[in-house]
Amino acid sequence: MSTRNLTNLTLVLFCFAASGVANAQTENSARTVAAIPAEINDTGERAPAAPPRSSAGDATPIDLAANRYGIGSPASQEEIARIDIDVMADGRGLPEGSGTYAEGEALYADSCVACHGEDLEGIAELGAPKLIGGRGSLASENPVKTVESYWPYASTLFDYVHRAMPMDTPGSLSPDEVYAVAAYILGRSGIIDENPETELNSESFARITMPNAEGFVKDPRGQGQLE
């Protein structure tokens, strides 16, 4: 076959293929495109798409009786009491017991000094905060937040120590021990008398006024800080 004949055959095949594509485009249904997103009138930006419809309303109610797995048991009053240890701002929830500054000093040396330092200055490398000092610094360029300078209620100190300290054995201190450690920290900060015999209990603890007691505003939802 000559070169001219081969060229003519190629042109015929190309025209046939092009004709088939054209026929496919015209014979099929009309092509569609996505709708142009709506615009925000003021800015001309694309408006966000409407959220998808939730199928939650289509679900049938869960039959609780049919979904019991036979594990666990109702909590006893004793078990509830072990975790019901929160203390409110006005002293509600403080447990029975007592502790002195001297007892707290010894406990601090045993359980707290490794993280918070001998002078309660904190150890930044361990993430353990400074506990005292910084009074009057909150409105300055270098605020120092401590028990003494920041917390508006002494109950926060009791609640936090009782619930979360020491870091390696949280919740292991008895109420007497928490009262004692609190007496030592508050005594070192000058909030209560720094006397070895100074004792804290539920009544005396609730009467403590912290330096930053007026540094917070009441809850705007109407109940205030004590609720």
Concise synopsis of the structure shown:
The protein is an all-alpha fold and 227 residues long.
Question: What features would you describe in this structure?
Answer:
- InterPro entries: Cyt_c-like_dom, Cyt_c-like_dom_sf, Cytochrome_c-type_DH.
- It comes from Thioclava arctica.
- Residues 1-24 form the signal peptide.
- This is C-type cytochrome.
- Keywords: Heme, Iron, Metal-binding, Signal.
- The structure is a single chain.
- The chain has 227 residues and is mainly alpha-helical.
- Helices cover 34% and strands 3% of the residues.
- The chain has a two-stranded antiparallel ribbon.
- The chain is extended.
- The protein starts with a helix and ends in a 21-residue tail after the last helix.
- The relative contact order is 0.12.
- The model has no long low-confidence stretch (mean pLDDT 85).
Pick out its properties:
mainly alpha, 7 helices, 34% helix
Q: What share of the residues lie within helices?
A: 25-40%
In terms of per-residue confidence, which ranges show pLDDT below 50 for 5 or more consecutive residues?
none
What is the rounded distance between the termini? 101 Å
- Overall morphology: extended
User: How would you classify the helix and strand content by structural class?
Assistant: mainly alpha
Question: How much is the average pLDDT?
Answer: 85
SSE series: HHEHHHHEH
Number of helices: 7
Instruction: Note the beta-strand portion.
Output: under 5%
Structure summary, number of beta strands: 2
**Gyration radius, rounded:** 37 Å
Order of strands side by side in the largest beta sheet?
1-2
